[in-house]
Write a structure and sequence with these properties.
mainly alpha, 148 residues
């Protein structure tokens, strides 16, 4: 029984996809591996699963992660942080693409990414604090320093 639609072309047909050969962007288990050389596995098959990168999609994913974890506390802050860090990689991709299309500011970031990071930070700031030591506080500081 087949459960997945396998298309021989990218959607939408009239546009070309952008390939980013960094599987860790969507596979957080790779950060746990010491040897990430997947091509060495004899049974390795690399598939390309589309990931829509837009401000709306990234914020939807952030809100979903926050909904799953609830408050940030000592027990969940590492996992919470790891999941949100994957979204930061998506923000960086978003920034690079918009920067190539419309240019970057003096800090090297697109106006679109700056607006997204402002919204991202505003959501991180309202995560309930259950006595977490690091997350999301350090991430907020890093994003403000880098983008704002």
């Amino acid at each position: 029984m087949h459960h997945h639609i396998i298309d021989p072309y990218p959607l939408p047909k009239e546009k070309s996809p952008i390939y980013i050969n960094e599987p860790w962007v969507i596979d957080k288990s790779l950060s746990c591996e010491k040897n990430n050389d997947l091509e060495q596995d004899k049974d390795n098959i690399r598939i390309y699963v589309p990931v829509d990168i837009s401000a709306t999609a990234i914020m939807r994913r952030l809100n979903c992660i926050i909904s799953c974890y609830g408050e940030s506390n000592e027990d969940n802050e590492f996992s919470f942080s790891t999941d949100v860090s994957l979204l930061i990689s998506q923000v960086e991709i978003y920034d690079q693409i918009w920067g190539a299309r419309h240019g970057m500011n003096e800090k090297g970031h697109s106006a679109e990414a700056i607006a997204l990071v402002r919204e991202f930070i505003s959501v991180l700031e309202i995560i309930p604090d259950g006595c977490a030591e690091v997350f999301p506080f350090e991430l907020i500081d890093e994003l403000q320093s880098e983008y704002l």
